[in-house]
Amino acid sequence: MSVSIKSAREIELMRAAGKILAKVHDNLKKELKEGMSTLDIDRLGEEIIRSYGCIPSFKNYNGYPASVCVSVNDEVVHGIPTQKRHLKEGDIVSLDIGVIYKGYHSDAARTHGIGEVSKEAALLMERTRQSFFEGIKYAKEGNHLHQISNAISAYAESFGYGVVRDLVGHGIGTNLHEDPQIPNFAQKSRGVRLKAGMTLAIEPMINAGRFDVEWQDDDWTVVTQDHSLSAHYENTILVTSGEPEILSLSAAV
Ligand code: MF3
Ligand code: CO
């Protein structure tokens, strides 16, 4: 396994990609409302991505048919947008989006509630987001990758949540998926040593119930086996010798 170190020029392009992706998420969040279909979300998302001069990186990636992965309630990730599924009050919906700007990728996910959601759902979303921040406290040159994994899982499991094991975060750059793989659950090994200039997509997927997931017949949609709710939160970050830089984060989400 070799983890690429980005040059100053590459880092600038990844900053630009991340900034755009943060705006895509902000704009899309404002459009979310009860009654819209998950395909409406995808169409809007693609339009916004292209309006910034970017390419939606998920579209046709390994045959995935859309620009935005839209995963509702017990769907963990990779839900396929459809005209048949309409959002209703109380749903939680994860939007996972990737953009390519001048050849560089940025990848980020948010989970939003539609209207009033249950206390359980609100806590799951907030703690999933927080688990990302617990993890990146360790994303610093000289630390080891699995310190991030261990911190995410210790935080999430302290609430009795299940941390998804079958999908992981990843390095990112000129490719959507680069080395290293970044598990969100506790690891026995230390993992690679982190260096300034590594760019990583860290993406905890946290279930209110058990960690087990399964794939639906469309071969994409991942759901919780026990049908408990699941939330997803992801950003593309830059490792530095000090605090990590969160490239795909805006003030709004
Ligand atoms: N954030 C997800 C990932 O990193 C999105 C990939 S969806 C796909 O794997 F459609 F592009 F596969
Ligand atoms: Co990702």
Please characterize this protein's 3D structure.
The chain is an alpha+beta fold and 253 residues long. It has a single domain (8-246), classed as Creatine Amidinohydrolase (Alpha-Beta Complex). It is built from four helices and 15 strands. It has helices at residues 8-31, 38-51, 119-136, 145-157, and strands at 55-56, 68-72, 75-77, 92-101, 104-113, 162-163, 169-171, 178-182, 199-202, 205-207, 213-215, 222-224, 230-232, 235-238, 245-246. The strands form four sheets. A five-stranded antiparallel sheet has the order 8-7-9-14-15. Strands 1, 2, 4 and 5 form a four-stranded antiparallel sheet that branches. A three-stranded antiparallel sheet has the order 3-12-11, with no helix packed on it. The radius of gyration is 17 Å and the shape is globular. The model has no long low-confidence stretch (mean pLDDT 98). The site of 2-amino-4-trifluoromethylsulfanyl-butyric acid has 14 residues, from strand 4 and strand 5.
Q: How would you summarize what this structure contains?
A:
This protein has 253 residues and is of the alpha+beta class.
Give the helix/strand layout:
Elements: H1 8-31, H2 38-51, E1 55-56, E2 68-72, E3 75-77, E4 92-101, E5 104-113, H3 119-136, H4 145-157, E6 162-163, E7 169-171, E8 178-182, E9 199-202, E10 205-207, E11 213-215, E12 222-224, E13 230-232, E14 235-238, E15 245-246
Antiparallel strand pairs: 1-4, 2-4, 3-12, 4-5, 6-10, 7-8, 7-9, 9-14, 10-13, 11-12, 14-15
This protein binds 2-amino-4-trifluoromethylsulfanyl-butyric acid and cobalt (II) ion.
